[in-house]
Design a protein that fits this description.
Length: 117
């Protein structure tokens, strides 16, 4: 499955195979001006993509799927549903450097004592 991207900055269109994004062999980066999404957003996108692909495969046993996703449409849909502060995508110019590299904090998930019942 190939995804078409169009750079908001320089308007270059390019394609990346979803499989390559999921494998990490391709990065989501503009071939022209090298603009890219903040690391955390790119990661979320790739994991959503991989989840979507899995779900489509499962559902495919019942229904063949062919869908078109356009971010411009989606942004409007999301805006009309919730108008809280989802400003991340508007702050593009400022946050395009890698900033979110610090979300690797270790999780101290303490198991509560699992007593036998
Ligand atoms: Zn570009």
């Amino acid at each position: 499955m190939t995804i078409d991207f169009s750079c908001q900055k320089c308007e270059t269109s390019f394609e990346i195979d979803a499989q390559d994004l999921i494998d990490g062999t391709e990065k989501l980066i503009c071939p022209q001006c090298h603009a890219r999404a903040p690391a955390s957003i790119a990661e979320d996108f790739v994991s959503a993509l991989s989840e979507m692909r899995a779900q489509v495969a499962v559902l495919g046993k019942k229904f063949a799927i062919n869908m078109e996703l356009e971010s411009e449409d989606l942004v409007e849909e999301l805006d009309s549903k919730k108008d809280d502060e989802e400003d991340e995508l508007d702050a593009e110019e400022e946050d395009l450097e890698e900033d979110d590299l610090d979300d690797e904090d270790e999780e101290d998930v303490e198991d509560e004592d699992m007593e036998e019942r």
